[in-house]
Amino acid sequence: MELHLAGKKALVTGASKGIGLETVRVLQEEGVTVAAVSRTVTAELAATGAITVTGDLSQSQAPAAVVAEALKALGSLDILINNVGGGAATPGAGFLDFDDDAWTAALALNLAAAVRTTRAALPALLASGGAVVNVSSDSARRPHTAPLPYSAAKAALNAVTKGLSEEFGPRGVRFNIITPSSTRTALWEGEQSFGADLAEAMNLTQQELVAALPVQSGMITGRLIEPREVATAIAYLASPLAVSVHGANWVVDAGVSKTA
Questions:
Q1: Inter-residue contact 179 to 233 (CB < 8 Å)
Q2: Which of 36, 136, 228, 256 is 20 to 30 Å from the Cα of 17, by its Cα?
């Protein structure tokens, strides 16, 4: 599908792997010039040829610096994809296992990073009549499925996105949310990952865990979601074809959600 994105300029955070990396690739295929933000530049990200900007967006001053560097390279900005997120977690950890530092870290990476990056990018997005897509998680709707600080941060991100849509939609900037469920990324399949730790805690091999996860989660497809499937939806939401989509939460969960 022709998304009419050729010539646009985008900033993608959390771009070194997984959904972020695939979003960079999909946008480039549509003719978008991309500034890709990550803490480190992986070989896969370097291979895309995207403009790379390094920074730890969980640090309070980093988002403004990253946006300034990206704008210097791009000249203008049409699209912002706030994808950065995640964090360390111990399988089976409950509310009492998370101290103030754990909550602060989760909120800094999964909420404040998007807030600060958006605030820094908004003048450029207002000038271009741009679009913002924030990457959430279905754990925002099913908080028992992930560490509570992470789920709470993503739920707050959903609320912030709705509020920004109401405020800035009339001024020409669209805000939307993409909500994936379990996706085939290093989170589940990496050697040192949440998936590896969870498999060990459950006395399973990591391969057994990944194979069983889709059915246990209620995925109609019987398989994990591929990063490209999420990235393609992100690109559509950022495109002029979605001009009337404002404040929407697009769920890409392979049928996990059973409510109408």
A1: no
A2: 256
176 in a structural domain:
yes
Quote the pTM value: 0.94
Domain housing 172: 9-183+226-252
Q: Would you place residue 134 in the very low, low, confident or very high pLDDT band (cuts 50, 70, 90)?
A: very high
Task: With CA atoms as reference, report the closest residue to 114 among 149, 80, 78, 148.
Answer: 80
Host H or E run for residue 143? none
Please check whether residues 160 and 241 belong to one and the same domain.
yes
Closest to 181 measured CA to CA, from 129, 122, 141 = 141
Rounded distance between C-alpha atoms, residue 145 and residue 114, angstroms = 22
Cα 172 from chain centroid (whole Å): 22
The DSSP string of 162-224 is HHHHHHHGGGT-EEEEEEE-SBSSHHHHSSSSHHHHHHHHTT--HHHHHHHHHHHHT-TTSSP
The answer to whether residue 160 is domain-embedded is yes
What is the spatial distance between Cα 236 and Cα 232, in angstroms, rounded to a whole number?
Answer: 6
pLDDT digits (tens, 9 = 90+) for 157-189: 999 999 999 999 999 999 999 999 999 887 788
Residues 162 and 247 in one domain: yes
Q: How many domains does the chain have?
A: 2
- Letter for the amino acid at 175? F
What stretch of H or E contains 128?
Answer: helix 113-128
